Each structure stands twice: as C-alpha cells, then as structure tokens.
Amino acid sequence: MAVLRHRTFYFMAQRRGVFCILWHSIKIRRILWRALRISTKILGQNSSIDTLNTFKLANLSIRKSGAMFMISIIRNLLMFTASAVVIGYIAVWALSEYKLSNVDVPAPWSYSIVRDDTALDHGRHIARTRGCFGCHGQQLEGRVFTDQWPWVKRAVAPNLAAFAKQHSSEVLEASIRHGVGYSGKALWSMPSYNWVHLRDIDLASLIAFLQAAPIVEKSLPDPELGFQARWDMLLGREQNMVEWVAKESSLKYETSANSLLKNGEYLAKTTCNECHGTDLTGMYQAPSLAIIAAYNKTQFRQLMKTGTSQDGRTDLGLMTMVAKDRFAHFSDTEIDQLYAYLNQVIAAQ
Questions:
Q1: Which run of H or E residues covers position 97?
Q2: Structure confidence by residue, pLDDT tens digits, 211-244
Q3: How far apart are CA 210 and CA 199, in angstroms?
Q4: Would you say residue 37 lies in a domain?
Q5: What does the alpha-carbon distance between residue 69 and residue 76 come to, in Å, rounded to a whole number?
Q6: Angle 229-232-237 (CA atoms, 0-180°, nearest 5)?
Q7: How far apart are CA 113 and CA 206, in angstroms?
Q8: Coil, strand, or helix at residue 226?
C-alpha cells in the first residue's frame, strides 16, 4: 500500500507540473521525497487526504523555491547587462576624450593686428564671404544646430562676438585655422579645414572685426558630443577638425605669377572646400566643381550672386542659400578669379 501510495503521489506531482523540476534539481527531489516519507509516518496509511494536503504544501514550497531561483537568475543577468552597458559607455567616452585631447597645439600665432576702419571693413567682408554669419547668426549671437545634426547630440555655434572678446588672437587663430579649441582639445563642428589657408592679412582683419563687433546677448546651452558621434569617431567613421585640417593639401598656385589662378585657388580653398571637399571633387550631396565647365562667365556670376543655375533653376538647395548669404558679397573681380581657377584647373581634371 505504501509503494502504491507513493506512486500515486508521484503521478499527481507529474500532473501538477513538478515533474521537470523533480528531475532537474537534486535539492527539490530530496525535499519532495522527505515530505512524502514524513507525511506517511506521522499520519498513517489511511490518512490519504491529509497526506495529499501535506504534499500540496511541499509542492507549493518547491514551486516557490524554483520561482525564487529563476528570479535570482534574471536579476543577475539584468545586473550584468546594465553593468556592461555602463562600462561600455564609460570606455567609449574616455577613449574619445583621449583622442580629442591628444592633439598637437599649434605654435602661438604672431602677427600685428591693425584695427582701423579699412581693416574692420575688410574683416567684415571675410566674415560674410567665409560664413561666420551663416553659422553664428546674423548678429554673431550664436546658434544651436541640434535639429540639423542630431547624431552629434548638441552642436552649438557660440556667441562669436563675446567669444572673440574673451580670448586672445592666438586662441582665435588656433580655432579658426587649426581646429584646436581654447581648452586645447580638437573641435568637432567648426569647419577649420575651410580656413587653414586663410592669409595672415585676411585672418588679422577678421579677428579685428570679431573683437570689435557688438555683443548681442543670447542664452545658449553647452555643446555636447553624444555617444553616436563618439562611437563613430573611434571607429574612424567620423573625424574631428584637427584630422580634417591635416587632409588639406598645400596651395599649388600660391607662388604663381598668374594672379587669376593664384587668387582663384585661394578663394576656392577658403570657401568652396567646406561643402565640395578638400579637392573640390564633391563631398556628401555637393557635386564636383568640374560642373563649372557647363557655365560661361556670365552664368557663373549669376550662380554666385543669386544661386540660380545656368538653366534658370533657383532650387539648388544649400547652394542657393549660401550664394545669397555669402557669395553675393564677393566682388566681380573675386568671382572672375574663382571662375578662372575652377574652369581651367578643376574642370580640366
């Protein structure tokens, strides 16, 4: 009878879903059989109902023990995953900060800055045609580019008038030409590669203008480089401004007697390369400037002044916008010099 009763309990346990736990946990098997033996000895052979109730209590204890075991496993897995994520984020942040900080700081710039009206007017011309107003605002008050560059997280063009007054000419030169910020770290969103070839006289006039510009107060958040940008930088998919500057080749016509090509190259390599790439053969959505071969001089002037193509289109996207805001302020002489270089050198390639 005892053997039969044990078999009956075993069959009931199997039906109640304990069978899997029974064969996968030695501790649970021992608890189960110990409960059955104790109930048989204490309650006797004829107390099957009481024995069954005792088994139910043991079964409940087993289930609770199994549930607590699974909860413990899940909790440990979650803690391990969370720890791995935190450690990974810290590692990416630390390595990217090291890469931004591990740059060569340029030698201090030494140049006499003239601050007369002629220099200030020329500085305004450089600021307008090279895009200072486009990124930093029409009053140099600063702008936030979160919507335009969400992967950066928060790109902020600072209040340039205030920044220029707070820092020395050497700091400004390092930021403008070399992509190195006042903290000694590489900049991220400042297109310094566009101005690495900026002549001393032009840079000095620009700095004089910026330092003399009135400050328009505006509340701006701090810039923040997000995880995606830092991760891309470590993988080599994105580069900081010091790395961009290093890719700029020297000017080929800097010592040329041909003033059209000399000045045209200078204008192209301090203006057009921001969007069209260091070699002007196209970058991202901006096309190769060999397309200028389709323009005559009059059509090219129209493009630069109004953002209108040779076939009359006025929807050239960014080109139309920067033409009206920047290039319309170029003189006809500057536009002709730029056209000569693009047409004779870039289009010829």
A1: helix 48-101
A2: 999 999 999 999 988 888 999 989 888 889 999 9
A3: 16
A4: yes
A5: 11
A6: 125
A7: 10
A8: coil
- Together in a domain, 176 and 145: yes
Question: Which of the residue ranges 9-18, 256-265, 271-280 would you say has the lowest mean pLDDT?
Answer: 9-18
pTM here is: 0.75
Whole-number Å distance between alpha carbons of 52 and 60:
12
Domain span holding position 14: 2-90
One-letter amino acid identity for 85?
Answer: V
Torsional class of 128: left (φ above 0), alpha (ψ -120 to 50), beta (otherwise): alpha
At which residue do the structure tokens 């008038």 appear? 161
d(CA 49, CA 42): 13
Which domain-ending residue is among 188, 219, 247? Answer: 247
Q: What is the pLDDT, as a whole number, of residue 10? A: 39
Question: With contact defined as beta carbons under 8 Å apart, do 70 and 90 qualify?
Answer: no
**Residue 55 pLDDT level (bands cut at 50, 70, 90):** low
Mark whether 179 and 275 lie in a shared domain: no
User: Token pair for residue 166?
Assistant: 């707070």
Residue 177 counted as domain residue = yes
Asked if residues 225 and 240 have their Cβ atoms less than 8 Å apart, the reply is no
Q: Are strands 156-157 and 224-225 parallel, antiparallel or unpaired?
A: unpaired
In the chain, the DSSP E strands lie at 143-144, 153-154, 156-157, 224-225
Residue 245, class by beta-carbon neighbours within 10 Å (0-12 exposed, 13-18 middle, 19+ buried)?
A: buried
Helix, strand, coil percent content, the chain, rounded in steps of 5: 60, 5, 35
Whole-number Å distance between alpha carbons of 160 and 243: 23
pLDDT of residue 51: 53
CA dihedral 305, 310, 316, 320 (to 10 degrees): 0
Q: Which residues face 154 on adjacent strands?
A: 224
Alpha-carbon distance of 92 to 231, in angstroms, equals 6
- 275: tokens are 């969007």
Q: Does an H or E element contain 37, and which?
A: helix 26-43
